[in-house]
Input
Amino acid sequence: MRIDLAKDQDRLPGFPQAPTAAPGVGQTLAPRHRNSLALAGCIIALAVIDPALFQLVLHSLADVYLGVSAFIALTLTIFYLLQQRSGSWLNGVMRKGTPWEVPVSALLGALPGCGGAIVVVTRFVGGNSSFGALVAVLTATMGDAAFLLMAREPQTAFLVYGTALLAGTLTGILVNATHVHGARANRRAPERSPEVTPGPLPSSLTAVFMLMLFPGAVFALANALQIDANSWFGAFAPFEPVTWYGFAGTLVCLAIWLSQPLDSWTARLRRCIRTEAVPDLVAAETSFVSVWVVLGFLSFELLMHYTSVDLAALFRGLGPMVILLATAVGLIPGCGPQIIMTTLYLNGVAPLSAQLANAISNDGDALFPALALAPRAAALATVYSAVPALLLGYLVFWVE
Output
């Protein structure tokens, strides 16, 4: 439901209209609050029914927050603050036809997350960027999966980012030099896609998220340095307070995600390029990525818990076809499948060559607004991004 701010100025951000009756009299909870309560009920039931499985879920969700979400939130905070203050500078450097247009577009794509890529997509749709810049940013971007790789294997992440950045830059320059379709593709007016305004986040959840962030970042850094932060709590160390803190952090992320209506992909992504409160934006984007990381982590852990399937052997059995599979997964719009693919790599299931091919062919969430506003150009650009993905993927496959 769209909120009319002119009529509802007295409404608290993200919450339903204040009830006229006393609480508990003829009222029902809003769907997003029911979702959060249902999640809490499922976790309590799991703890009672199967304590061993609950421990697996507890540690998996704690790993998500301490190993991924806290780093994502810090990175996004820095990125969006810089983005708010560098808009005019970027417009000058990325002016269409300048020598720096394609390299800077590829650099924005190589940044973790989808914010930089969406900036270039928006400029292309408005006729302010070339088709080569669009190809460059879609080739270079790894989307939200970059956060997961950076948090767990930073050295591998920089190798993948550098390779994708180089591939995006060279591909974009080559496309601009040889392709004429892009000159026509970016004239399509963005008004063809109706504007949808996503609802605001509940202010209480955003406040809890931000209050937990600084201690969570300290714990996450200690975890990355292989320091047992539980030992800081003295006699309470055996109760693993840091693990429970990470578990609570992930639950907050899930509650934020559950609090939001299922807006259109284009509307959700446009929030990244509009002026908006940084805490709300960081909380929303971190929660979205965290949900997919939870899905990836839990899928892998539960599969290992209930079966004896050797996924590593299964992927090895694919031989050279694993590169084709990873590239094909990268062509799927969105970051969810790519986060799962990165999870497989981090667990030793998929080889580095497959991870590299997926990272280059992966267009992230930036592909959604591109498909909505300039579908033919976006489809052609994502096909072009698959070419360097296959070439570099197979090159690394044969030498690793």
Residues 62 and 234 are 20 Å apart (CA to CA). The two ends are 52 Å apart (CA to CA). Confidence is low (pLDDT under 50) at residues 1-29, 181-198. The first helix runs from residue 31 to 49.
